Amino acid sequence: PNPNLTNGNAPFRKPFPACSRCRNAWYCSSACQKQAWKQGHKLICRDWTKERSSSSAN
C-alpha cells in the first residue's frame, strides 16, 4: 500500500492521522497502517525518528 494515497476502491476521505511516532507517513485506513507497519514502516520510522532527534540536538 502507498501510505500517501487512498486504496482506489474507497472515495477519498480525510486520511487517518500521520504515524504518531515519525509524522512522515499518512494512511487511508487503520488496516493499511497496520500492514505498512508490518511490511517495514517500523524500521523506516525508527530511522526517521533518530535522524530528527539528532538534527534537533545540533
Automatic annotation (TrEMBL):
Q: Where in this chain does the record put each MYND-type domain?
A: 19-45
Q: Name the UniProt key words of this record, in alphabetical order.
A: Metal-binding, Zinc, Zinc-finger
Q: Which GO terms describe its molecular function?
A: zinc ion binding
Q: Which domain of life is it from?
A: Eukaryota
Pfam families hit by this protein: zf-MYND
- Tell me which InterPro entries the record gives: Znf_MYND (IPR002893)
Q: Which Gene3D superfamilies match?
A: 6.10.140.2220
Q: State what protein this is by name.
A: MYND-type domain-containing protein
Taxonomic source organism: Adineta steineri
Does this entry carry the keyword Transmembrane?
A: no
